[in-house]
Amino acid sequence: MAFLFTILSGLLLLAVPIDAQVYMGEERSSYAFTWVQPLNTTILGQYGHSEPVYPSPRTTGSGEWAEAYEKARNFVTELTLAEKSDMVTGAPGPCVGNIYAIPRLNFSGLCLQDGPVSLRVADYVSVFPSGVTVAASWDKAVMYERNLAMGREFRAKGAHVALAPSVGPMGRCVYSGRNWEGFSPDPYLSGVAMELGIKGLQDAGVQAVAKHLIANEQEIQRNPLYYSNGTVQFEAISSNVDDRTLHELYLWPFANAVHAGVSSVMCSYQRLNGSYACQNSKLLNGLLKDELGFQGYVVSDWYALHAGVDAAEAGMDMDMPGTSRYNRTVVPELGRMSSFFGGNITTGVRNGSLEETRLDDMVTRIMTPYFYLHQDEAYPMVDASSIFLNTFYNQSSWLRDWNITQDTSVRDVRENHAQIIRRHAAESTVLLKNNNALPLNAPRYIGIFGNDAGEGQNGPLNRFGSPDSLEYGTYAVGGGSGAARLTDLVTPQEAIKARASQDGTVVESWLNNPLIAESDVASLWSYQGPDVCLVFLKSWAREVIDRETLQLDWNGTQVVKSVASACNNTIVITHSAGVNVLPFADHPNVTAILLAHYPGQESGNSITDVLYGAVNPSGRLPYTIAYDEADYNAPIVTDIQTTGVDDWQSWFDERLEIDYRYFDAHNIPVRYEFGYGLSYTTFAMFDIMLESTQQLGSISRFPVEEPVAPGGNPELWQTLYNVRVDVTNTGRVRGSAVPQLYLSFPDSTPLGTPPRQLRGFEKVELAPGERRTVAFALIRRDISYWDVVSQEWAIPSGEFVVSAGFSSRDLVVSTNMTPIASTSV
Ligand code: BGC
Fold this sequence. Notes:
By secondary structure, the protein is of the alpha/beta class. It contains 19 helices and 32 strands. The radius of gyration is 27 Å and the shape is globular. The two termini are about 40 Å apart. Beta-D-glucopyranose binds near residues 163 and 301.
């Protein structure tokens, strides 16, 4: 059935019900939009429509999971139908998400905890640098070590599942409230960070969850809005993404996650191409489980489920938190029980609406990673402190069901992680400008300026995600479920003072307001004024809301102007969620700029190490800093009329052109480009060499069909070329270079291909004068585009340009490669 729905911008849209099988229980149809008048669709592919893909593929235990899979299957045979339904449904408990234990089978239950920087609802845990910070390290060791250490803490606190890492949002839009939880708008950089982060967590014995699948690129209207009678006023926003863009940008890092053996994937709140992500069969059955060969379980984002049997058939495996948003038992006005799963799954199987084999597959998928990571063997009990810290559920509703010893001893799991965090955040700090101002050399008098330098005034900042930007106090982490309780926070002010006292330096501090109010700033200070002025500024972001501006908070730009008006050695340091425009960057008195993003608990120590040169900065921008806010494309939403129930739409019609891909495609000058960052030393690059691992002429356009393994067709992950460049340290101090590899695809690639795409990076530490060879491996996926016609990754014919350099706009050496000659197609 299809009917004429609306006329929009001169283009006809069709609305067709998809995923609309009617079952007993909660049926729901989603309406998807299809362009009738094609927008050059043969070249670019249609979008806005999500086709049905059924049945849900069953796990086979492929990859490294064969043994664990057998154990999981045996486990399932022991379960009653009710137990199986419990296993796929969250329940009240000590953690943010809980699956009941089955003591009869020695199953401890599952404890799922947030989030990407720390175990959020806990005491005596460490707070690590956030995703964007780690992306700025461009350091693979940092990406792994951070999550290995974090995973050890989750495990020691008894959490089986870490709701991390996040790559949705990836960063399509600079304003998205959760970009800082993830890594970078570049899918390659994000993909590497995902893969290593997942390995880190899982090597510590904790299940990782790649979230949020997919295109959760805006916070606004992420959930449906209901009238008080329970009917829907507005459906959640629909991210409408074409097939090629989905594969080459947003699904790309999830493919890395699956390839790394991620235990679970969390589906996102909003709709994808008209159908809720958590019941979108094309996404879950088609892309994730079939194409990518995902063997683990799909967990819903919290309350993201809007159907029971429909969602299970579409590929959902676990409903979280399993209790209703409105009420923990029955919701009279909605006439439904607390969860779309739970008892409804039991009923569905009994009355024949849901195949029991699907339910068995759901439980098998949940139990395989549990056995794979040996969580059945002496896993620590959930820490008793969770009983008191967890405010999600009333204790009386769960305490008797959980085997928790209520001792009063504190389980401090921080080990030596403060040192790791300090080093990681310092190595992730990006130096954008340096007119010989840094490193500091025993200054006589330091002025510290700005609200971001010191302590908050109302206890620890961001305890559980403060709702708003707070005027005073440094930002070490953002807000929402990705926030963290800062058991220990070292502020820049205290760390600088401690370091400065070694040189007998005078240190004085000022907050934003007096600086803005005072026209003669020099009248505020003693002696002849500071010989160095450190201005600490910040920018807040959190879950649920998107950022409204790219300016620094609390009049940050004005503070820089005021200080720089009186101090000719003004150094700006920001703690920010991501992109800020920096209108003061060319001011002659602004002598250095450092971006530290959200560095975690050792913030002050990390930045002091960089300021004084104990650590030579080696961070690079994981995104582009434009001259002006208006220079960015990809708005949060594109088409809102808010009169109809389906009106919230976000058309990703910039397609592949996000971040540097857009600026490069349109030759737009930028202030600091993707991949840019300075060091206290300098580097040079020479001699690019390229060699194929295959015999001449033997590379095929499409990968040979092979049984799908986690990550998709294994052929896609095969190295086809190795590239080498030489890098040398031409300066006078030890430092780390970040050589980067970019590909320009041949002209035969379909329209819309970005001019350059990152396909390799390494961080290499060099002593002065040292020269080293750096190698990059190009796998089949790296040199392919997603061909919407054949539904395959295809290597285009013709010549690629392979360039290496120190940023996306500082390409130093280049060569060519022709995997497939133009004539052979
Ligand atoms: C967030 C998830 C988080 C979950 C549990 C949701 O609101 O989107 O990222 O893991 O809550 O706290």
